[in-house]
UniProtKB/TrEMBL annotation:
Source organism of this protein record: Actinomadura darangshiensis
Domain of life: Bacteria
Domain WYL: 141-204
Protein name: YafY family transcriptional regulator
PROSITE patterns reported in the protein's UniProt record: WYL (PS52050)
Length: 235
């Protein structure tokens, strides 16, 4: 069993046994690897957002919080791959890291056979990119946190002329266009609404201050007449 298959199998094993705890040595014997390998696998799953909890000591072990996991999903392999293709295009967008962990959770919640078929189908999907072209830089996690918690954030920003400035802003929305992602915020340096291209943000630091509540509609009141703003919808 390769590591990817073992990771998915570990999630299913812990889900099936919860709330009973399974020791690393017990899991190691089951998958014919070392206890240290199991510990590294569990750490990787935890970093991916899987709600696995560990207790130390002779009677300790690993358990999974069922209340925070998905029940078995009836995704077909093709549906899972379609989701993976969409999420793979999230690079450089807000919550791109969350897109990866969401995909892990979806595939882990599929049946073992469908999950294996989905991974096999995914292996036959390719993306063409120029040689040496790196993945788009992810939006700094601090900007995601700033919008989520409505905290004032200090930006070091480079404008289109190459001028670097530092300013405190009150985040309101993320907005996407064909040219990329933008943070719309109230700029305290300029005393008004400003739009910042996220790929021009060089540094960002959350401040302790909570930003005033500003209506999202108010920051999009000067759009060109041939543009409209559509909110993200789940259905």
């Amino acid at each position: 069993m390769n590591r990817t298959d073992r990771l998915y199998a570990l999630v299913e094993e812990l889900r099936a046994c919860a709330p009973r705890r399974l020791a690393a040595r017990e899991l190691a014997a089951r998958y014919e690897v070392s206890a240290r390998t199991i510990e590294r696998d569990i750490s990787a799953l935890q970093q991916a957002g899987v709600p696995i909890f560990a207790d130390v000591g002779r009677s300790g072990g690993y358990t999974l919080d069922k209340s925070r996991t998905l029940p078995p999903l009836n995704f077909t392999p093709a549906e899972a791959v379609a989701v993976a293709i969409t999420l793979s295009r999230a690079g450089g967008s807000p919550y791109s890291r969350s897109a990866r962990t969401a995909l892990h959770k979806i595939v882990a919640a599929m049946s073992a056979d469908d999950g294996a078929s989905a991974r096999e189908l995914a292996a036959r999907i390719r993306f063409l990119a120029p040689a040496g072209d790196d993945d788009p830089a992810s939006v700094p996690a601090v900007l995601e946190e700033a919008v989520l918690t409505r905290r004032v954030v200090r930006l070091t920003y480079v404008d289109r002329a190459g001028t670097e400035t530092e300013r405190d802003v009150e985040p309101v929305t993320f907005t996407a266009s064909d040219e990329g992602w933008y943070l719309t915020a109230w700029c305290r340096k300029r005393g008004g609404r400003r739009v910042f291209r996220t790929d021009r943000v060089r540094r960002a630091a959350l401040l302790e201050e909570t930003a005033p509540d500003r209506a999202a509609e108010a920051v999009h009141d000067d759009l060109p007449p041939d543009y409209v703003v559509r909110p993200l919808e789940f259905v």
